[in-house]
Amino acid sequence: MARVGYTTFRTAIGHCGLVWTDAGLVAVQLPARSAAATAARIRARFPGARRRLATRAVWRARTAIVKALAGRGDLAAIQLDLSRCSPFHRQVYEAARRIPRGATLSYGELAARAGNPRAARAVGQAMARNPFPLLVPCHRVLAAHGCGGFSAPGGVDTKFQLLRIEGALAQEELPL
Description:
Layout lengths: L4 E7 L2 E8 L2 E6 L5 H11 L4 E2 L4 H14 L17 H11 L7 E2 H7 L6 H9 L12 E2 L12 H12 L10
Parallel strand pairs: 1-4, 5-6
Antiparallel strand pairs: 1-2, 2-3
């Protein structure tokens, strides 16, 4: 079994976490109420995970996330270990990573970009299981007639907060 390491760190929206193995980055944890709660969520998802010193690649990802959540920078260049994802989810995640900062797509549009235009519901399932929120920007994917859901801590409020940080929503826009 691969050694699983994690770290938590403060961002503009709270303490996030990163999880990795020797093969690379395997998950991002969006913030919970505290650093301890974020770490607890990571350990629940990855039993046996241990807090470790970040590798260079993890440190670069951490730095990029802190900047992005402060409204600066992009996360598209961060390398992910998608080996734990199904081939369909990989296609969807790779297509989602190409959604520019400040832009949004519908689930149907993302399905078409992933090569399966009739798979909007399956794309929604892939987004709900996204192990890399922020790095695979599931918050940029919306329902055809409204926001849709968001399975990360904070739910739709977190989704709208992320879209506002990226400039996809004006500060005065309210959730649908």
